[in-house]
Amino acid sequence: MAEIVTLQLPETLAQKAKEIAAFTHRRLEDVLLEWIDRAITELPVESLPDEQVLAMCDMQMETQQQEVFSDLQARYREGQLNDAEVRLLDELMQVYRRGLISKARALKVAVERGLKPALN
Question: Which superkingdom is the protein from (predicted)?
Fold first, then answer.
């Protein structure tokens, strides 16, 4: 069962969430829920069970986010982005970088635990 919560967001945070929602064709509420869920689930990798560590090693950006990200990157290289699109590209780049860092940490833990072979 869901619980309704009312939040007052800083204007800049609300604007970023609205932009991402618009570009990914999602509801604002869904974007905010994803952010909250990500904050809750981003526990230290070392404290996760083996199955979750291995899942993190294979983690990828959501398909819809990846498509938007790729499109924005291509259009950025061609100088075709407006200010809002540049901000969205920056936000998605941060998501991408956080994902890479999480995967790297998970791979380190997986190797330490003997779940994956070390890369030489």
Answer: Bacteria
Tokens matching residue 70:
């790729």
What's the domain range around 58? 13-112
Question: Distance between CA atoms of 46 and 53, rounded to whole angstroms?
Answer: 8
Domain count, the chain: 1
Whether residue 102 is contained in a domain is answered as yes
In a domain, 1, yes or no: no
Please write the tens of the pLDDT for every residue from 31-41.
999 888 877 76
Sign of the C-alpha dihedral computed for residues 41, 3, 91 and 23 taken in this order: positive
Span 68-112, pLDDT tens digits: 999 999 999 999 999 999 989 998 998 899 889 889 999 999 999
